[in-house]
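User: Predict the full complex structure for these chains.
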Amino acid sequence: EPEVTQTPSHQVTQMGQEVILRCVPISNHLYFYWYRQILGQKVEFLVSFYNNEISEKSEIFDDQFSVERPDGSNFTLKIRSTKLEDSAMYFCASSLPSGTERYEQYFGPGTRLTVT
Amino acid sequence: KNEVEQSPQNLTAQEGEFITINCSYSVGISALHWLQQHPGGGIVSLFMLSSGKKKHGRLIATINIQEKHSSLHITASHPRDSAVYICAVNTGTASKLTFGTGTRLQVTL
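Assistant: Here is the predicted structure of the two-chain assembly.
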């Protein structure tokens, strides 16, 4: 069964460093998302991406964040200068593009980001 | 902005018990999702529904659009059902999900 994959599973970085989190969505999906979950808190929406551009972003997704689909398979989230409060589990998700199927999202296993 | 509330926050049950987890939301939705998150962190979709009722094995999800309320039921609970169960909604035409805080379920022998 097709699945969303994410790498790395765990990333440790120092404050101020840049990190890139990688995702490979399901191959025929065209909507892509990033969510984050700070330890002990609920999952929060960061950004959605469709047709090679951001379709929606949350207040959390400020200038420190960017997303890119550099080729036909990868979808990346970059944090330019990490802060301690960026420590969280980051989930990538993807969905089909049309009708109600776009509401059904398939999640990757997550990348745990630890900023020290 | 849609507020999604779940109850209870924590639930302990004995194996075999019937379990109900509730979800309410504040604004009309396009779809409601029930998700399962295991201790390792991964999220698995259990149901997506916009009306009525769905059943998969021992899991049943219902939704009442007028009352803005959904329930997830687990029949004959088992320790392997222990996980966090999360309610999430799509609002309007937006495909993004708004999540509840989750219900932590522990099923003991």
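DSSP finds no helices and eleven strands in chain A.
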